[in-house]
Design brief:
Blueprint (H helix, E strand, L loop, with lengths): L3 H6 L2 E7 L6 H11 L8 H7 L8 H14 L3 H16 L3 E8 L11 H20 L2 H4 L7 E9 L8 H10 L4 H21 L4 E7 L11 H9 L3 E6 L5 H9 L5 E4 L17 H15 L2 E4 L1 H7 L11 H6 L4 E3 L11 H12 L3 H13 L7 H26 L1
Parallel strand pairs: 1-2, 2-3, 3-4, 4-5, 5-6, 6-7, 7-8
Helix pairs in contact: 2-4, 5-6, 9-10
């Protein structure tokens, strides 16, 4: 039986977790007080009631909390602390590999340039990695070591007044066409990501996040082409708030290796291209294309349920069809704070809602390890995956013996 305790004990990954959406709520309050940032409440219960709710009426309400977390993450100390605590929270539930994503341009300003932002996040994760490596169970090989990668997010758009860096960028260029500026900002970030990756920082991929509708991925094609040409992996938020065409653009126009969310992969009713004569066939062909190439989908069930209340019952979530189509899909949190979730919780929801078999569970976890943008070479990655799956089998064996 796939119990909570078993799911908690199994080695896992989180390939889609936003730093600014995953702060500890107590740390947010403390850092806000230290920095003079006003919050709607200074108690965890108050913030959960007013901002970080169990459910949301819309994507806009869901995103409101990011203005608060972003306001405190404007210096190296807060970034380093938040990254460190995020790693510890994952390790506490046996998530031994994570790819932390964030948008450096939301944290850049008078206090920090891009390299300082990225380095602060890396420092926090590295501190947790060193501490974990000293545990006796890691030293003797019982537990896998902790590894991580950084994914830098370009933004489809910038909220007015939220990014000090973008305000300066906008003023300096004197440009009256925001969409062009967003594309130029994305390309600048891609160039910086490649440069810092080449300088030794653990940047493993480039991403595109933000409001999907009205900001198609193809507008940011130049940024992703630069990443592609310099062997920097790509993942794109697509099919979260827009239809299958968004996913197609991500892979066909922007060379995406993975898809963030992908919820609307099978939403034939959302196809807008009048040239598509058979929307259902289009979705099936697209799913087959993803399956053939093992293009992994980073599924975030709780987040999708919160930002798209029309889903209703979790059993209606598209992950059911992804399993049926045998797609490479793995479960992620998206935002641990904003979505009130953990990796273990996401697996628990999926196991119960979709009656996952042990084989489906193992495949979903394996996809997380195998399709990760591991920061080492391929031989090191293979060795790490084998180590993690050996631990997986040991946990299963221990659980089976305890049940007999």
């Amino acid at each position: 039986m796939l119990t909570h305790d078993l799911l908690h004990a199994l080695p896992k990954t989180d390939l889609h977790v936003h730093l600014d959406g995953s702060l500890r709520i107590e740390s947010l309050i403390e850092m806000a007080q230290e920095r003079g940032v006003s919050l709607p409440s200074n108690s965890p219960d108050g913030l959960r009631e007013l901002v970080f709710k169990p459910s949301y009426e819309s994507l806009g309400e869901y995103l409101a909390g990011f203005a608060l977390t972003g306001a405190v993450l404007q210096d190296a100390e807060s970034l380093e602390r938040s990254a460190y605590e995020l790693a510890l929270d994952n390790l506490a539930e046996n998530v031994c590999y994570i790819e932390v994503r964030f948008a450096p341009q939301l944290h850049m300003g008078p206090k920090m340039n891009m390299e300082q932002v990225v380095r602060a996040v890396a420092d926090g994760l590295e501190r947790a990695k060193r501490e974990h490596a000293q545990k006796p169970a890691v030293i003797d090989g019982t537990l896998p070591p902790f590894h991580y990668g950084l994914i830098l997010c370009a933004m489809r758009m910038f909220e007015p007044g939220f990014s000090a860096w973008f305000a300066e960028f906008y003023t300096a260029l004197g440009e009256s066409k925001p969409n062009k500026l967003y594309a130029e900002a994305a390309e600048q970030l891609a160039r910086g990501a490649v440069r810092l990756r080449n300088a030794g920082l653990p940047i493993v991929a480039f991403d595109l996040a933000g409001h999907e509708a009205g900001h198609p991925a193809v507008h940011y094609k130049a940024a992703f082409l630069h990443a592609h040409r310099h062997f920097l992996a790509r993942t794109i938020h697509a099919g979260e708030a827009y239809g299958p065409e968004s996913i197609y653009q991500a892979i066909a126009e922007c060379h995406a290796d993975r898809i963030g969310h992908g919820y609307h992969l099978f939403s034939a009713d959302l196809l807008a291209d009048p040239g598509v004569k058979d929307p259902q066939a289009y979705c099936e062909d697209l799913a087959q294309y993803l399956a053939d190439r093992r293009t992994t989908i980073e599924v975030c069930i709780t987040s999708n349920m919160q930002t798209n209340p029309s889903i209703g019952d979790v059993r209606n979530h598209a992950f059911r069809k992804m399993l049926d189509h045998k797609l490479s899909a793995t479960l992620c949190t998206d935002n641990r704070l904003v979505s009130h979730t953990t990796v273990t919780r996401e697996y628990g929801i999926a196991v119960q809602a979709f009656d996952m078999t042990p084989k489906q569970l193992k495949n979903t976890i394996v996809y997380g390890f195998k399709r990760s943008f591991f920061p080492g070479n391929y031989r090191d990655k293979r060795a790490y995956v084998r180590q993690c799956m050996a631990r997986y089998e040991a946990v299963i064996a221990e659980h089976t013996a305890a049940q007999s």
